[in-house]
Amino acid sequence: MSLELKPKRWAGAIREVTLGSGSRRPVTVGGGNGLPLHTFEASFPHRPVFALEITDVAPPRWIDTVRQPWNGVLGQPAAAARRAVDEFGADLVMLHLMGTHPDRGNRSPDDAAADVRAVLESVRVPLIVKGPGAGPKQNDVLARVAEECQGEGLVLHSACQEEYKTLAAVAVAYGHVLVAESPIDMNIAKQLNILLSDASMDLRHTLIDPLTGGLGYGLEYTYSVMERIRLAALGGDAMLSSPMICLVGEEAWKAKEVKVSGGVHWEVATALTLIEAGAEVLVLRHPEALARLRKQVDCWFGGETCR
Amino acid sequence: MPLTGLQVFKLLPNTNCRECGYPTCLAFAMKLAAGKESLEKCPYASPEACAALGAASAPPIRGVTIGRGPRAITVGEETVFFRHEKTFVRRPGLFRVLNPASDRDTLLDSWRALRIDRAGETFQVDGVAIPESPGSPDDAAAAAERGFPVALLAATPQGASAMAERIKDHRPLLVPPPGADLGAYAGLAARLGVPLVVSGADLNALATAAMDATRAGVADILLEPPGADLCGLHHNLSGIRRCALDRIHPGLGHPVFLRIAAGEFEKAVLGITKFASLLAIEDHGGETWLPLWTLRQNIYTDPQKPLQMQPGVYSIGEPDAKSPLLVTTNFSLTYFIVSTELEATGLACHLAVVDAEGLSVLTAWSAGKFSGDRVAKSLRAMQATERVSHRTAIIPGYVSVISGELEDALGDGWRVLVGPQEASDIAPFLRDVWETVFR
Ligand code: B12
Ligand code: SF4
After folding, report:
1. What's the per-residue H, E or C state across chain A?
2. Which of A295, B217, B324, B332 is most deeply buried (CB count within 10 A of its CB)?
3. What ipTM was assigned to the predicted interfaces of this complex?
């Protein structure tokens, strides 16, 4: 009996989304027409990409292991961005405007816009901008940043089911990409994309953040929800076929185990598992995790490190 | 692949004699196909029908047991490609490679004693892999005597035989070097009745090797897939699982074995997530093992049924009526984190674990399982309110919004104190707030 492994063909494919425009060197993700990493039977015009997370103010909760590579530039976004790109080889940078949160300094939308500008001037990679989180401040900050950086194709993180209209409007008006976040729930992910298209957002400018639980802290849920979202997209559901972004570092470094056991392993295990489940934009905190993951990803997508 | 009702029907006599308890053969066939009846109820079923049904209902991936006694481990028997279709059932065995060492016995004793409790599961060393060396038969015996399932990483047929003969009653797993000529090893495994790992340069060769081993009389087989890098390995792991489930080749319906050399952490991650059943890992430190154990726990937990604690009042240390009373949910992970933090404070206290259907604090609250009313009812039902004289309950910071409602629902002069959001801040909180205000 001889063995024949027929390639699986799917009705749908992942939508191509380009991050960054204007003065950015754009990065495109998506476009794959098979299960994640199944390069043996499907085609993938773009590989998963890695962002490093930087912050507008010194991050109070980061532990030493993850602070150490950023010594001297923590809370200095322009310098940190340069280090992320020039030294650590990040494909993108995520600026987390944590200092705009009412409890963490309450910096103003104008301060935020100035920080984003400074980062745009220091590096040429596309920029993800994460707001302070829920509440009215999220919209105030991101809307101001969107306006200030018109045409730069920023990735605005993020809109949710309860609060998406303002951000959809500014993303369309000023030419940015919008992240649609849903709490580990495929139906909400779909619903939110429907709402965004109704709000005249072209889904070619959106990413899904399925919300990540770190290793040991909810990864099991995220993993299956992402696999199901991918299967639905490949089955032809256009409302779920946006590429997925995962804020890996933020979740992985929250684990209490990272204090006693190797944190970089924790971040790598979380990220690699999420890539298997379909993540294509991974936001990391530790440059060593980035280097290790890059080496593996190159192995699937024809880099030089492996073959 | 399972048979359809009509296919089963064609195997029955179609006399509608009703002795099976169904009005027609067709009705019985439908139940059979759905797996809800057994063929024994029809006295007239032909041997061919029995054979066909038996083969169709055999699990697509065979189960293999390694070792004997309480620590014996069974792997395989998986039935799905995606975990959400059903669940994964058999956690992969994580074996430690024991390199020749002078302090072998101390090492093995410490591995045997190792137990790490995490969120409702106990992590331990599942088995020991012994690389062939002049002393390896003794090493294998030392591991087997301590109750460990043993994998024998052979280099030569002679070495394999020396090790396997020595512990043949302990059902070791025989692992020839990759690419070795199978003959001698298969003969040994068949003669001793122990499971065998087969390898091959590609999936075809692998399947053929497994068929050869079966023909040589080996009953239990594991597959060691080729893969020079993670991409190639992933391709083969996915291919094996798909072929097994679709019953494309009977030679691939076996569990998978992987060697993880020192530093190959990413390979172990891929193996655990993508279908490997037994990993022989050379790294020793907790840096490698804790994330791998945790990953296995995540991937092999049924997400439909989160690991849960029995609701009730748990004692941390030896609390009395003046000790703090803290409230949390019965999600194992939540309990695990909060209780370890509390233990670290060295302060005795009561931890009331409320039935929130196994959800974390915020998830439970959003799902309406951790409202003030519900928590109050639950605290009363478990008589938590009678354990302390100070009438103060400490709730997680993330659900500060329920404090008023909970105070009202508890009544009787009870007050609710909002604790910190993260469990890691509990120690300073108890020191500063509880100690100063309430002592
Ligand atoms: C995994 C997860 C799920 C899993 C459930 C897992 C489970 N068994 O609970 C699933 C996918 C099923 C799920 C579902 C939902 N989820 Co959910 N989920 C998460 C996620 C990612 C992690 C939760 C977790 O496991 N945390 C780890 C545990 C250990 O944390 P914890 O219980 O809070 O315990 C900590 C503290 O509270 C503290 N603590 C605990 N007890 C005590 C006691 C005292 C006295 C003190 C002082 C401290 C303390 O210590 C712990 C460690 O610091 C979070 C987001 C996130 N990253 O946190 C969202 C999150 C909790 N989910 C959310 C939502 C909205 C939902 C849904 C309602 C969404 C939906 N519509 O489907 C549903 C509801 C479920 C239902 N049955 O209807 C929201 C809640 C929003 C809010 N602010 O209320 C979150 C925050 C995500 C978000 N940002 O939107 N979720
Ligand atoms: S006992 Fe057998 S032959 Fe008789 S009705 Fe049932 S299935 Fe048909």
Report:
1. CCCCCCCCCCCCCCCCEEECCCCCCCEEECCCCCCCCCCCCCCCCCCCEEEEEEECCCCCCCCHHHHHHHCCCCCCHHHHHHHHHHHCCCCEEEEECHHHCHHHCCCCHHHHHHHHHHHHHHCCCCEEEECCCCCHHHHHHHHHHHHHCCCCCCEEEEEECCECHHHHHHHHHHCCEEEEECCCCHHHHHHHHHHHHHCCCCHHHEEEECCCCECCEEHHHHHHHHHHHHHHHHCCCHHHCCCEEECHHHHHCCCHHHHCCCHHHHHHHHHHHHHHHCEEEEEECCHHHHHHHHHHHHHHCCCCCCC
2. B324
3. 0.93
